[in-house]
Amino acid sequence: MNIRERLGKELLFLDGGMGTLLQAEGLAPGELPETWNIEHPEKVEAIHRRYYEAGSDVVLANTFGANVCKFHDDRYTVEEVIRAGIANAKRAGEQIGKETYVALDMGPTGKLLKPMGDLDFDDAYEAFAEAVRYGEKYGADLIHIETMSDTYEVKAAILAAKENSSLPVFVTMIFDERGKLLTGGDVLSVVAMLEGLRVDALGLNCGLGPKQMLPILNDLRRYTSLPIIVKPNAGLPKQKNGETYYDVEPDEFARIMQEVVKEGACVIGGCCGTTPEHIKKLVEECKDLPLREIEKKHDTIVSSYGQAVILDDMPRIIGERINPTGKKKFKEALKNEDMDYILKEAITQQDKGAHILDVNVGLPDIDEVAMMEKVVKELQSVTSLPLQIDTVDGKAMERAMRIYNGKPMINSVNGKQVSMDEVFPLVRKYGGVVVGLTIDEEGIPKDAEGRVRVAGKIINEAAKYGIDKKDIVIDVLTMTISSEKDGAKVTLEALKRVREEFGVRTVLGVSNISFGLPRRPIVNSYFYAMAMQNGLTAGIINPSSEDMMKAYRSYNALMGFDENCTNYISTYAGTTETVTVQASQAAAAAGNAPKAAGVEMTLKYAIERGLKEEAHHITRDLIGTREPLDIIQEELIPALNVVGEGFEKGTVFLPQLLMSADAAKIAFAVIKDVLASSGQEEEKKEKIILATVKGDIHDIGKNIVKVLLENYGFDVIDLGKDVPPEAIVEKAVEENVTLVGLSALMTTTVVSMEETIKLLREKKPDCKVMVGGAVLNQDYADMIGADFYGKDAMQSVHYAQKFFSMVE
User: Fold this and answer.
1) Angstrom distances, CA of residue 640 to CA of 540, 621, 710
2) Chain centroid to CA 161: how far?
3) What is the pLDDT of residues 492-525, one digit of tens each?
4) Considering only CA atoms, which of 116, 182, 207 is closest in space to residue 792?
5) pTM of the model
6) Alpha carbon of 470 to those of 442, 506, 545: distances in Å?
């Protein structure tokens, strides 16, 4: 029976920690586990068989790192290790008296994707696609994508799986105790994207024990309509007599996993530290438990990599300013590829209260496909707001949807068959919330009845593609009242009927109502309030228009969406109206947005927002009037502190953190050039060595720490990844370095970290060691003799600052 037929209908059991058992069998630190598929097939097969005998329905082939980005062994190809890995698992299953399944196991590449890192999205896709093709060719029953901490990388892996095989796709992510991914995503944003990409099951693995996963599981169940997978570690790693072990024994593991099943998981197993004994006890204690019914959810959700927006009864704002229509300066910015101008428009709208940003780059004389891709990528590097991809070009739409990190809004489809035939397959493939315009082959219906009819046509046609109406928002079209006296009344009636008759969410381009009229903001704001009262979910407006925002905030206060009128009071209490209607009109007519929401464009602000060109130009201007070192201390460092504090609090996400670091780096470069040309010397920088330890090629965390330390003025000696203890110690002695940072992601390589620390204690006793990585915690860091454990990159910066201040 195909596993899809059993999924969600019965409790399915996965296996446990392959790496844990390989280590017990003699896998050496730094040795690639996948090579054992060929060199020790009997041992790998025996491990699989032990899990099957313990009760596993599915075992994951020993292919976690089998991709060209990660697997580097001149003796074997990726195809050879995947073929052997699947064959080993299949042979083990043939000896079991029940139906079993083999999953192609796909883990991360070990690299960050652009713009945060140096791996291109398409290259990540190709790496995963190659593995998928071999997996299906050699007989895998499903694809299990696991231990992912970046929504962008997991999207590349899912597309590779979907486009290169017909196999079921399971996906599990690695969350921290706050329910956050390394790159900032939360449970809701992950669910929105994975459901949009139509995976078969989703969930979480690694990083946490079963007890710590329960709150995250509850969030998953709240939002997803898919079967849920839970694969915890056997607690937290600890050490005894030089050996790593985990602190949750099989009995306790099984007991807590009973709660996991009761809370909604229907596919369960283990990750690091879970042995066949854990799985056997798990099966014994859970096999007779009834499954919690999977409830279909009806939330309309759009998301970015870092946050999601639920389109519900409370109105939302879609910022309209990233659109060339009627905007001369924006047209020039597109033609000149002036990204900073476009990014400032995004930041201004975010600061003014937009929840989603419309993105339209259509001009006759530019390559819209290339420009749309570039703008979407750049926008997602400075803002975590979800985007609405606004285009009539099918190729631009598909490219943007493919490289978008999240679940976007799509503007738009209409009731013409040719439009639905083009757009709906893209929505089905990539996921998204699509705007349906009530226009068909007969044009825009004059009355509300006609527009409701077209809305129904769009909803019914979408259903043929498996697109639920929760992923459709209807635009009944705003007609200008200067040419159609009943235009507003028809729109409002249609708006109300669509909400009541179909139960879908709605959207309108509000400002269309007033074309050709004087003092347009007056008409726009009144119509906006009327539209919200009649069921408007999301208005496409200019959030810098005070008239529109007054209407929005007042409506929310009046309807009880603004709890205790908090937002209204915080905005208007104690303020004096200083902007006249005439001034507002003049600014709107000129196409001007306020400078970054009224904030002067300083170097500090440019760095906080990741505006690289602005940082460059402002630093050049400042050099003539201020001392270079004063600029560093009074502008650069305070800006980095603001961003760092936001990152620690979870209000700034990793892409924004790294873009701010890039902007600071550019400013530093300008200052350095000036100092060099004037003969002045830079302040002495303290040296820090960073390395990913022997056997580990995951350098994501280490690279993030490096960027931040460099921006805080430290001289980082980056030794790279898979670095032997002797090389680290030799460099520390040679450069007289007194602080070393070590990183490891896998449990199989933490032993190398301990060896490095012991050797440093012997050869360079004055050297302190800070450690970090997904498999570490404070207790484990203490056991291996580290001086400091950092849960995130900013903690490493704080420790370095404190350490060197004490040394001085």
Assistant:
1) 33, 20, 11
2) 19
3) 999 999 999 999 999 999 999 999 999 999 999 9
4) 182
5) 0.89
6) 26, 11, 30
